[in-house]
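User: Here's a chain of 395 residues. Predict its fold as tokens.
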Amino acid sequence: MPDSAGSRGPRLSATRREDERVTPLELFFDLVFVLAITQCTALMAHHPTWAGMAQGLLVLGILWWGWVGYAWLTSVIDPEEGAVRLVMFGAMASLLIVSLCVPEAFGHLGLTFALAFGVFRVAHIALFMLASPDDDALRHSVLGLAASTAIAVLLLAAASLFDGIAQGALWALALLLDMAGPYFFGSEGWRLVPGHFAERHGLIIIIALGESIVAIGVGAAGQLDLGIGTVAVLGVALAAAQWWIYFDVVALISAKRLGEAEAGRTQNDLARDSYSYIHLLMVAGIVLVAFGLKTAIAHDGDDLQAVPAFALLGGVAIYLLGLVAFRYRHVQTINRQRLGLAIVLLILVPVATAMPALISLAVVVVLIWAMIAYEHHGYDERRDRLRHEGAVSHG
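Assistant: Prediction complete.
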């Protein structure tokens, strides 16, 4: 076996990843991120205004970029070896504190959020430094990441001293500079295992979709009648549709393209753009849908207000636009059906405010499944061959 006891370094070193499978520790780590996503939805639900929704999305963006860093990290090192495992547990604890602060991240827990998030990111940087003692290119990239991380954390801490527009502007600036960091210090030095990287992001899409199911249960609040039951079934149908249009073909093609890309800058740029950046659009869309579903099931017979209506229909539209961008980045073609449906859903947002929430949800479900049926009808034997190849490669 390549990972023999004799080939491993001392306990304070990091062992490079050699296989493409997501480890149990990574899945365990992601469970804390589930809470973070749930808290973002709760923040929006408690403040169902445009400002509240913007705050929820800003928090989601900050949390996403922190999680992305660990996805890159565990594509370089084995998270279950030696001291790395203990540091991962510590990072989970700090992320848990961050998640608990989310409902008041723009209130009295703003500074605590920033400090806990700083600890979360410091652990990430420390592990990357541990993984790059003899890799000057990787260490250069890590030092650049450390600089952008420090700037972001300082801005978040400063934001806790303000409120209103000034506070939101500092959060937005922190997110922008943090996510733009890789463009300033380049991507040549990063290392990744393509199959692992793609699978890790696919799993986080499933975790985000799980939040839609959780939102249905929370919105029902222990009640059940015909309207609530109907919204619940339609909500599952919507989550299933979102799963279908990502995992049926798109995830397989994209993972294959990433694996075939030239190692180094070309592959790293593709991974950064399509997974680290564009997947945020998809996750944001899913979280917005969860917020919309939570509102719809609690008020199934009432007309949706403007913000929940945008969350429900606009969330699906943002998810579809993310998928359009994802496909374009990989194969340079545009899925016109998904782009067209996204535009239609955005146009229908004002209409959704004049009809019961149940009807609005039903319209969205019918439209998205009609699109799936149309796309499926147009598939040829290439789809079956691709899925078979994907099953063989993961077998």
